[in-house]
Each structure stands twice: as structure tokens, then as C-alpha cells.
């Protein structure tokens, strides 16, 4: 019997709306939206504390580290400053992601092989204090193996490319996702996925072998404009069953 897929809700774009006015308004409240997400069925909350602080702020991390009613997953770049924040605020998970200042959103997976020497001590430091580690990567056997060698507990596959492709190219990318998921599971790592997932693609991602978790943000915030966040998360939770 296939396990239920854990739903992580990314609330970055709640903070985006607040920061549009330079953080001069207290609304929308990230914590309030976290609680609505959990009421709708979210089993994890994900935030990305970016270098440029375009949405989530340090005070959001500090607050959610104390008040989040479900496990907290911190997406972050592999920098000494971010490692220091993670050590101080102790999220349940840290997901290492690539980060470029000019990008609108995360454009692809992390090159774990290239950054191995830099990241390996970071992974060890965070795991030593009980934080679990995932690597946000492309569905590549090479990157899966590098993630295993660095000691990651999980890999999160970047699904954005698959979402946007059509026809035979979409089928080819799906095959890459399947092969990478099977290899990650064989090596003993948890299989996660995220980026660009809407209702339709979430129905499809159910078929990915060994998938244990998805992290979804942008589409849920968009759906919430019409249906409310709690109802949108509840619908997504139902799809992932």
C-alpha cells in the first residue's frame, strides 16, 4: 500500500504581499496563514529566507521556529550566515537550494557535486544538532549520488521543468524523475518533490515512486485568492491522498 504523501505548504508569497509595501503593514500575517494551512491539512510549513529578503524576513523565521504547530522546513542557500541562523532557530528540516539574486524564483536544482566541499561541513554541523537535511536537485542520478555521499537525509526534486514541458519532452522528464526517485530510495534517502505544482500536476505527481513529501506554495496562494487558503490546502491534501 502506498503511503500518503506529506504536504508541505510554502508561505513565502504571504510574506511577498506584506513586503510589497516594504513591510510597513502587519498584514497579511504569516503566522495566521500558517494556522489556516494547518487547519486545511498541511503537515509541514516551508519558508525560504533569501539573501535579499524579498519575502520571508528573519523575524518570520524566529516567530515560526517558536509558534509553528507542525514541522518547519527552512529553504536556504549554502552560506555561513544561513547556517548560523539555522543553528540558532533550529527548524526541523533544512533544504539547501541554489539562489541567484536576479532570479524571479528558484530556476533549477542545486549542483551538489560542484559545491560538495563547501556544503559537507554545513550538513554535518546541522545534523549534529538534530536538523534533517534535504538537497533541492534536478532529477539526475549524478546529483542523487552526490546528495547521498554528502549525507543528506532526503532529496527534493525540482519539478518546475517537468511542469512546463509538453508532449514527448514532458514524458522524457517524467522518466528522469522516476529513475532518480528509484535510485534515491535504493540509497536510503527520502524522496521529496516541489516547484510549480498545481492541482493538475499534483494528481500526476502521486504516481512518482517512493514519493513521501511535496512542498507547494505559489499555486496555493493563487487559489486562495478565490477559495481561501484553508479550502485550497484542503483540496490539495485530498488530491495527494
UniProtKB/TrEMBL annotation:
UniProt keyword annotations, A-Z: Cytoplasm, Pyridoxine biosynthesis, Transferase
Residues at the active site: 48, 75, 195
InterPro entries according to UniProt: Aldolase_TIM, PyrdxlP_synth_PdxJ, Pyridoxine-5'_phos_synth
CDD domains registered for this protein in UniProt: PNPsynthase (cd00003)
Binding-site positions, 1-deoxy-D-xylulose 5-phosphate: 12-13, 50, 55, 105
Enzyme class, first EC level, given as a word: transferase
Pathway: Cofactor biosynthesis; pyridoxine 5'-phosphate biosynthesis; pyridoxine 5'-phosphate from D-erythrose 4-phosphate: step 5/5
GO molecular function annotation: pyridoxine 5'-phosphate synthase activity
Catalysed reaction equations from the record: 3-amino-2-oxopropyl phosphate + 1-deoxy-D-xylulose 5-phosphate = pyridoxine 5'-phosphate + phosphate + 2 H2O + H(+)
Enzyme Commission designation: 2.6.99.2
Transition state stabilizer (site feature) positions: 156
Localization, UniProt: Cytoplasm
Residues at which 3-amino-2-oxopropyl phosphate binds: 10, 21, 196, 217-218
PANTHER family tied to this protein: PYRIDOXINE 5'-PHOSPHATE SYNTHASE
Subunit field text: Homooctamer; tetramer of dimers.
Annotated family: Belongs to the PNP synthase family.
Summary of the function given for this chain in its UniProt record: Catalyzes the complicated ring closure reaction between the two acyclic compounds 1-deoxy-D-xylulose-5-phosphate (DXP) and 3-amino-2-oxopropyl phosphate (1-amino-acetone-3-phosphate or AAP) to form pyridoxine 5'-phosphate (PNP) and inorganic phosphate.
Name of the protein this chain belongs to: Pyridoxine 5'-phosphate synthase
Gene source species: Bdellovibrio reynosensis
Source organism phylogeny: Bacteria, Pseudomonadati, Bdellovibrionota, Bdellovibrionia, Bdellovibrionales
Originating gene: pdxJ
Amino acid at each position: 500500500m502506498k503511503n500518503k504523501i506529506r504536504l508541505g505548504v510554502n508561505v513565502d508569497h504571504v510574506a511577498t504581499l506584506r513586503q510589497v509595501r516594504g513591510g510597513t503593514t502587519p498584514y497579511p500575517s504569516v503566522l495566521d496563514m500558517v494556522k489556516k494551512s494547518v487547519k486545511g491539512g498541511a503537515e509541514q510549513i516551508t519558508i525560504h529566507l533569501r539573501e535579499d529578503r524579498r519575502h520571508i524576513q528573519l523575524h518570520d523565521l524566529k516567530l515560526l521556529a517558536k509558534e509553528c504547530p507542525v514541522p518547519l522546513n527552512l529553504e536556504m542557500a549554502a552560506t555561513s550566515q544561513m547556517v548560523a541562523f539555522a543553528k540558532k532557530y533550529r527548524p526541523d528540516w533544512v533544504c539547501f537550494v541554489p539562489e541567484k539574486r536576479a532570479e524571479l524564483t528558484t530556476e533549477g536544482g542545486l549542483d551538489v557535486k560542484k559545491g560538495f566541499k563547501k556544503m559537507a561541513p554545513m550538513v554535518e554541523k546541522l545534523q549534529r544538532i538534530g536538523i534533517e537535511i534535504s538537497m533541492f536537485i534536478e532529477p539526475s542520478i549524478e546529483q542523487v549520488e552526490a546528495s547521498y555521499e554528502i549525507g543528506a537525509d532526503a532529496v527534493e526534486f525540482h519539478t518546475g521543468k517537468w511542469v512546463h514541458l509538453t508532449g514527448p519532452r514532458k514524458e522524457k522528464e517524467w522518466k528522469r524523475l522516476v529513475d532518480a526517485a528509484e535510485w534515491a530510495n535504493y540509497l536510503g534517502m527520502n524522496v521529496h518533490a516541489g516547484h510549480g505544482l498545481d492541482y493538475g500536476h499534483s494528481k500526476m505527481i502521486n504516481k512518482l515512486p517512493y514519493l513521501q513529501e511535496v512542498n507547494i506554495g505559489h499555486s496555493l496562494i493563487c487559489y486562495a485568492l478565490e477559495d481561501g487558503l484553508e479550502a485550497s490546502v484542503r483540496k490539495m491534501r485530498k488530491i495527494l491522498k
